[in-house]
Write a structure and sequence with these properties.
The protein is of the alpha+beta class. Helices cover 32% and strands 25% of the residues. The strands form six sheets. A nine-stranded antiparallel sheet has the order 13-19-18-17-16-15-14-22-21, sandwiched between helices.
């Protein structure tokens, strides 16, 4: 640990990464400094792999959807041959966006400014009045720029602008096995369909959202009203095991490359995850339906598969798999972020199961997430208006010896700040680096 005094003042402190991010605390400017945010967009979001979207969101030929590499907007398209294409939503002529709808189905994109046309692989094929352009222009590559690398892991599409970044599998490292377990709970990789989503705009730094994704300490305090209501009305229920989390069987795991997981499964599925759910509309009729269709011997297994996967799985820097939901973080400014909660359904499920899955997925984003959102914004306000209080603490269980290091996993209590310490180590290494960012410009056949 760096024993630098908290009162130490430095010129150009925003570039002294070891001072800003120490082993058990972080300087407030990491959340408030515009220059740090700008560097993050290059070094973290463009410099490593980020999640764009799931293949089920562009299921048909010529489907497309907008996505973001940090603050860089891209189009993700499926061409007529079913191949995934990713290219910049920025015309190579004057810089206007060529696509102004969030999603759709199109074989081509026409820039509204001067009418330049690009196919859904990003290739320029139409210029009004092209005879006005000479040999020098024609020798240039004017196709839409593409990320340096694009890859998919079992339906999850990632990209990076860093041609020197290791492979996607290397980036995922040991989080891949937990992703596999999450995918298996959904019935397998070909079974997942992203359904509707909710978008929240928050006035806070994106890392405040990511901090909370692996925080098992806040639950009985931030979500007190939800837990009290559940306990008083129904005598317990989902998440009530967080009321005494330090004595629970849950754990936090710090994984490779800044990834982490809060594993609720030991308590959530100890008896019955289905029986611990708070009441949802149609619950009784769904139980009857399952008994009639699956039989009494299989009914409980079907009910257990309907609820969330019991994991808060955090894939650094912007993908969160929570329950049965896919959450995506989109930074906008140093104090502004969009958060997307996307529900999922199963291809192999009947209407009744998918409806009940949606009911269980409505619960937390509508109620609990509002508690979190208020806290994120108030953290941003406090960090901004009180510059004399320089440090943000992340030392819970740092000195208790309860965070146990294994070969490639650090295991800690579910209330440990292990998640923050783990991902900030990766964040700092990326912020120190000088990635060779590149949007590829290539001749497309």
């Amino acid at each position: 640990m760096t024993n630098t005094s908290s009162t130490k003042k430095k010129e150009n402190a925003s570039s002294d990464w070891d001072w800003l991010v120490q082993e058990d605390r972080i300087h407030r400017t990491v959340y408030t400094d515009d220059n740090i945010f700008v560097r993050e967009m290059d070094n973290v979001f463009a410099g490593t792999w980020v999640y764009l979207l799931h293949e089920s969101q562009i299921a048909q030929p010529n489907d497309y959807r907008l996505a973001w590499i940090g603050t860089r907007e891209v189009i993700v398209s499926r061409n007529e041959d079913g191949e995934i294409q990713v290219f910049s939503n920025r015309c190579t002529h004057r810089g206007a966006t060529v696509c102004r709808e969030r999603r759709g189905n199109a074989q081509s994109f026409t820039c509204p400014y001067h009418g330049w046309r690009f196919d859904n692989q990003g290739k320029l094929f139409g210029i009004p009045g092209k005879n006005a352009y000479g040999p020098a222009f024609k020798s240039r590559d004017m196709n839409l720029a593409r990320p340096a690398q694009v890859a998919s892991y079992k339906g999850f599409i990632f990209a990076t602008l860093n041609p020197d970044a290791p492979s996607l599998l290397a980036h995922l490292g040991n989080v891949a096995r937990y992703m596999d377990e999450w995918i298996e709970h959904q019935g397998g990789e070909d079974n997942i369909v992203i359904s509707g989503g909710q978008r929240y705009h928050l006035d806070c730094n994106w890392k405040l959202v990511y901090d909370n994704a692996g925080d098992g300490y806040h639950v009985p305090f931030s979500h007190q009203s939800l837990l009290v209501m559940t306990n008083e009305r129904y005598g317990g229920g989902d998440m009530t095991y967080f009321a005494d989390a330090d004595r629970s069987n849950m754990h936090a795991y710090g994984l490779e490359n800044g990834h982490s997981i809060i594993d609720q499964r030991p308590d959530m599925f100890a008896n019955s995850a289905w029986n611990q759910q708070r009441p949802q509309p149609g619950r009784e009729s769904y139980v009857e339906h399952v008994l009639n269709t699956a039989g009494s011997e299989n009914a409980q297994a079907v009910l257990e598969s309907t609820v969330g996967a019991g994991m808060n799985l955090n894939i650094f820097p912007n993908l969160l798999l929570i329950g049965n939901q896919v959450q995506v973080i989109q930074p906008l400014k140093v104090d502004s972020v969009n958060v997307y909660f996307n529900a999922t359904r199963r291809r192999d499920a009947d209407v009744e199961m998918n409806t009940m899955r949606l009911r269980t997925q409505e619960d937390f984003p509508i109620v609990g997430e509002m508690d979190d959102a208020a806290n994120f914004e108030e953290c941003q306000r406090g960090l901004t208006f009180s510059p004399e209080n320089e440090w943000v603490d992340m030392s819970r269980h740092y000195e208790t010896g309860k965070d146990v290091k294994g070969d490639d996993v650090v295991t800690g209590p579910v209330t440990s700040d292990l998640h923050q310490r783990n991902y900030y180590a990766k964040w700092k290494s990326l912020m120190k680096a000088n990635p060779s960012l590149k949007m590829r410009k290539e001749r497309l056949k």
